[in-house]
Amino acid sequence: MGKYNIANKPCMCGSGKKYKKCCLLIESDLEAINQLIHSLTELDLTKQFIEDVLKEIETKIAMLDLSDNVLKDIYINMVQHYQAIGKDKLVLELIEKYKFDESEHSIIKLWYKMIKLIALRNLYSFEKVIELVPELLEMSRRIEWGSSNDNTVKSGVMLELGKTLSILIQMDGGKNQLAIDTCLELYDEIIEVYEKNIIHDIDHYHGALGNKLMLLKKQGKSNSINIVDSIHEVLKKKLYVGNLQGVANAYSMLATHFLNEKDYKQAIAYSKKDIVLSREYGSYLDLVKPLLNLSIIYLECRQISQAKKVAREALQFAEKVKNSELEDRIKHHLMRIDEEAKLINSEGGYIGKNAICPCNSNGENKKLYVECCGEADYDYEELKNVLASPELFHYTDLIRNDDVSNINFDNLKSYLKPLEENEVRVSWLEIVSKGAYQEIYELADMASLNLISAKQLLKDFVHPDLDPEAEAVIIKETSISLSICILSVNSLEAFVNQLIFFLSEIEEAQMPNHIKGNLPGNLLTNVADYQRNTRFEDKLNIIFNLYTNSRWNNFDRYTSRELSKLISIRNELVHFKSQKFTKIIPSNNEENILRNLPKEIELRKVNNSWPLKILNISFAKWCIELSESIINFVKVSYIKEVECNK
Asked: Which of 16, 457, 492, 555 is the most buried (most CB within 10 A)?
């Protein structure tokens, strides 16, 4: 009753309303706002999530009549998130209105001065940036390395000061030695205190390492440093800790490096990978940079349509965050594209698919763009759709660039490893690393696909509610059994042809001892001809004996006879000879093809010719089990033989 009485009493604010209709509602909404703000403290938030949460908070604020002090307490926790999605003008307005950068607490003051610096830098307000840099340098130097929170702010400010000075150095043509020295000192101090375990902000450490490398590169002081390998090392560290925005920044560095080196293939690939991550985890401004980089690359490669397309997309994002200075820069770039296109046309040059690649790798033998650097020009998101490998190209895998070498007998054991129960394989993928991008080759595992299809047909048919005597069921059972028989033998022939292909991929000197010198003379001369024109059973016996070191010859004779029976039945069903009517009533003697059948096969009790007697579920199961057991025998035997001869 106490809470009820309080809720119904006049509100203490003096509004004249009941407490439950006034400040109690506001308190509830403020609690909801605080929970939403807290949700923004998680790691690796997507841009869309941040936008949605901020929009929900703004909607709640608009419905409340809040004092400036309450609003200040809310916005002080939202400023950095507005910056994360590129709303730098709003950031400056909030800092100016609520004086966040004039706090009496030195760390809070330093933090919001840094946010102000980033906003001014993003808006290209470099006169104000130049005014603010000395103040921030002085403030950061006055704060000693101490508590964890203070260290995080100080190292973050130093990193942003380094980034800002790097931009100012570039604008000045790299002539301001004092700025260069100060920038390097900032990066070196972050690196030193991290390596001495004074600070624990690994993102700041990685950022300092990467930015220092790029500054040294621009100053021509990195001759003794392999810039690409060094950035890759930083990149791997960022990946290890899940700093995906940092990974995108590393991609940006690499794209810029390769663009300067005129290696457009690598520049395109790194720019596109930067775009993939920035779309998800970066701000709109983070996304504009790689889009502009890519547009510049396309322009230099005379891919005019593509250059315009990505530049216009960059312009849309600049307009979205109302960054007028950036909009003007992009519009100027679009004008440059038009001018370049007119110049190329006036000189009788080619653009698009017919353009000559301008990279440094061609020498006198110039290639078309599509045959050279254009090979890396594909959408990396599409690689997620590679069949049977939906997670193959997650962002982390894009970084690892795992290089699966050409098939050889050192790793053939993995190709011949028997599949576990319920394990599915539809193909083998060979991934060849080309630096920033990958070429992917696929070999369909038709042996596995045929068996998978046969098993699925059997699984879909078997159902306890089906009446085995029903005509429709008999027809369906017959058709499914026919399909399974064909698929089972197909799996065996596909398996034999795969084994032949594997042999053709390696030098004879690299083959296991039990295979060397025993290859059929005509196998390696013309693989396709051997696969197509050698009699199936002959080919099967030769190849199986080759891989198993003649264990196939000594395999269970009963199984060998069963295999011959299966192939014979399949051949008769596929190449059925219509030579005469078969007498079925009164029934004739048992037909030859039905003699000596395995005990697992139960003939259908009908007065019909042999196909309608044998094509049933017991026959279908036998086909699958026999084919699978033979394939697994060859695989296991090969692996045992290799292990024995090590």
From this structure: 492
What is the number of other CB atoms lying within 10 angstroms of the CB of residue 289? Answer: 21
Mean pLDDT, residues 236-265 taken together: 86
Phi-psi category of residue 494: left, alpha or beta, with phi > 0 → left and psi -120 to 50 → alpha: alpha
Span 192-200, average pLDDT: 91
Ramachandran angles phi, psi of 587, nearest 5°: -65, 145
Question: What is the residue type of 567?
Answer: I
Specify burial of residue 336 (Cβ count, 10 A radius: 0-12, 13-18, 19+).
Answer: middle
Instruction: Kindly give the pairing relationship between strand 438-444 and strand 427-433.
Output: antiparallel
**What phi, psi does 349 have (nearest 5°)?**
-85, 175
For residue 443, list its beta bridge partners: 428
CA 208 to chain centre: 27
Separation between Cα atoms, residue 488 and residue 8, nearest integer Å: 79
Query: What is the Cα–Cα distance from 518 to 321, expressed in whole angstroms?
Result: 71
Residue 387 has phi, psi (to 5 degrees) of -60, 135
Instruction: Give the span between the Cα atoms of 621 and 628, in whole angstroms.
Output: 11
Residue located via tokens 């085995």 = 468
Give the tokens for residue 472: 């429709």
Helix (H) or strand (E) holding 439: strand 438-444
Rounded to whole angstroms, the Cα distance separating 89 from 279 reads 21
Q: In this structure, what DSSP letter does residue 368 have?
A: B
**Backbone torsion region of residue 435, taken as left when φ is above 0, otherwise alpha when ψ lies between -120 and 50, otherwise beta:** left
Confidence check: pLDDT of 405 > 70: no
| Domains present along the chain, CATH in parentheses | 226-230+237-398 (1.25.40.10), 448-644 (no CATH)
For tokens 């200040």, the residue is: 72
What is the chain's Cα-based Rg?
Answer: 36
DSSP label at residue 104: S
404: left (phi over 0), alpha (psi -120 to 50) or beta: beta
Q: Which two tokens stand for residue 245?
A: 């925005």
Distance CA 486, CA 484 (A): 5
Q: Which two tokens stand for residue 212?
A: 């220092």
The amino acid occupying position 531 is Q
Q: Which residues contact 158 (CB under 8 A, 6 or more apart)?
A: 140, 186, 189, 190, 204, 208
**Would you give the DSSP letter of residue 357?**
P
Place of tokens 């078997």: 462
